Amino acid sequence: MKKMLLVSCLLMVSMPLVFGNATLLAKGKDDGKTPAGWSKGEKKGWLGKLVPPGLSKDKALRDSEKEAKRKEKAAEKEAEKLRRQQKREAKKAAEKAKEDAQKEKEEAEKVVTQQ
User: Fold this and answer.
1) Distance between CA atoms of residues 52 and 39, nearest Å
2) Domain boundaries, the chain
């Protein structure tokens, strides 16, 4: 009974120490001034830029893709605008030709009726 009590007390005391130290070791040296994980490798930081090094490449890629899509949409809008303008001009030209033909027909009828 005494041995069992001793073993259980020993486990109760040692468990928090074992698991408590494991979390302390995982954190590394953290004095509160450096970011988490800073002591685990050579860090260069943001190198004076507005975004971290990995994000700057991703952001540049996304921005270039967005800019390309914007330019493509603008070109499509311009092409559609030109197509509509040409269609209107063709319609106006057809109407004008029809009016001119009607006028010529009326003039020809006048000449025929006058003779």
Assistant:
1) 18
2) 55-115
Distances, alpha carbon 9 to alpha carbons 2, 17, 18, 63, in Å: 10, 13, 14, 62
Query: What is the residue-averaged pLDDT of the chain?
Result: 79
- Tell me how far CA of residue 2 lies from CA of 7, 12, 102, in angstroms: 9, 15, 123
**Both tokens assigned to 36:** 């988490």
Nearest to 50 by CA among 41, 40, 60: 60
Q: Could you read off the pLDDT of 18-63 as tens digits, one per residue? A: 666 544 445 455 566 776 666 777 667 777 777 676 666 777 778 8
DSSP letter (8 states) at residue 115: -
Maximum C-alpha span of the chain: 143
Please report which confidence band the pLDDT of residue 112 belongs to, taking 50, 70 and 90 as the band edges.
Answer: confident
Dihedral Cα 45, 47, 53, 55, nearest 10 deg:
100
Neighbouring CB atoms inside 10 A of 38's CB total 15
Whether this prediction's pTM lies above 0.70 is answered by no
